[in-house]
Amino acid sequence: MSVQLDGLNLPQSGQLDIDIRLSATVNITAFAARQKVTGYLADEISTNMHGGPPTLSVGERITWRVPVILSLPPHGDLGEVGHIDIDVETGQMMVSQALIQEMQHRAEALAARPTPQAA
Questions:
Q1: Total structural domains in the chain?
Q2: Residue 83 forms beta bridges with which residues?
Q3: Verdict on whether the full-model pTM lies above 0.85
Q4: What does the alpha-carbon distance between residue 89 and residue 24 come to, in Å, rounded to a whole number?
């Protein structure tokens, strides 16, 4: 598991001390968050997208940050086109129309790139 700290103004050089004490009830596991995102993508956006391995993200909320992966047959996974955050306590998915459009544009650009052919 990795932890990402968002929205911090960190010094460019010198001593850095980070003390973290958080308390949250994790009601949604990383596995459940990934399943939730994959189901949402298949139902609402594209069956060619799925959730990747989540990371714990600490910002205004503590969330599972689930990468959204574009996968096209016969090439398989082409790359990440965005991410969807899931609140660890409530299971709420942070999705907006702007985020969906951004991921769709990235997916189109990624799919348009030539992929290496198998020899």
A1: 1
A2: 67
A3: no
A4: 7
